[in-house]
Request: fold
Amino acid sequence: MCADVIDPRPPLRLDAALEGLAGTFRGMAAHPDEYNCDCHWGSAEELAQLKVADVVLEPDLLRRTWKAVDWEFPGEVLRRILPQLAGELVAGRVEPLFGMEEVGRALARGRWQAWPDGQAAAVREFLCAWWAHTLTDPRAAVPAYEVLACCAEASGTLTPWLAAWAAQTGPVADRRLAEAVDRWAYDLLGDELPWDAWEGEDELCAELTGWLVRHAPARLRSQGAPEELLHRVRLLGLTGEARWEDPHWPGYRY
Reply:
C-alpha cells in the first residue's frame, strides 16, 4: 500500500495529499435522505449543513459527524467531511475519547477502499503521506503509535505500515519507535493489542509483537533507550512461564 512511503520531501508530499483530497471530494455532500436523531446527534440545521458541499463545519459538528456510527449513507457523509477531517488530523486537533483508532474505524465504516479508483487512491495517498510525515518530521503533531492505530483500522491491516516503518530508519522514526514501545509494553506483555481493534485483534497483536522483536532492539539502542525498555522487547519474544519468571519481568498485574 505504501511501498513508496520513504519520501525525501514528506511535508511536500503531505501538502499534496491534502490538496488531492480537497480536489477529489470538492462538491461532495451527504445523501439528501440522510438523517440522524436530533435528540442525541444534533439539530436539523446542522444536518442540513452536511447536505451542502464545501461549507466548513464547526469543530464540534465535525467531531459528532465522524464519531456517529448510525449514518444510513456513511460513505457519502465521509466524502463530505474527509478533506476537513484530514486537515484537522494532521494538525493534531482531533481528540478521540479513547484513541485514534476511533478515527480509523470511522474511515472504515465509509468503505473507502471500495470507492471509485480515483477517490480510493486519494484516501490511500493521504494515509501514506501522513504516515511518512509522522516517521520523518520531528514537528509531527500526532504520535506514531496513534497514527499507526488509525491507519491500521482504516485499512484493515498492519502490514504495509510496519513495512514502511522498517524501511524508514532515520533518527525521527527510531525516536517514534522508542516512544511507541514505551507506550505499548504493558498491553503487549499481557498479549493484548494496545488499541481497540474492530476485528482480528489477536492476529494484529501477534504481528505487531513479532515485528517489534525483530526490528526494535537495534533501533532502540541507537536512541540510547534504557535497558529496562530493551528488556521489555526481549520479553516479548518469550512465552508462558519463560516470560513471567524472567528476572527482568516488570511485575505487571493483569
